[in-house]
Amino acid sequence: MIVAGFGFTTRATALSLTQALSATGCNADIDRIAVPHDKAAHPAILDFAQAQGWDIAAIQPQPLEAVRTETQSFLSRLTRRTGSVAEASALAGAGLGAKLIATRHISDDRMATCAIAQGPDT
Asked: Residue 39 and residue 44: Cα distance in Å, rounded?
């Protein structure tokens, strides 16, 4: 399973998410996207997921906090208690034993980040 994890501000748009995903350079077929649970109903992520035909995995705080991330953001650590919301979301969404295949990348407008993880069942 390939999961695109996202972190984003409330001002992010579907274009922000598209740019962040594109910045990863990932050519793999995405199976679903993962975001923190409180962002799963944000209009931008709903529009983005619907346009791509992907399901959204809403990740609870505890799994996000438990994941070790390759990159570290002071703001992510402060607000979500993880080094990277995008990386933690991707890894938690892909399941136990998942590995990052693309670390966190940032959209042009700096409103969204994306990371890609591959689960062990792929």
From this structure: 9
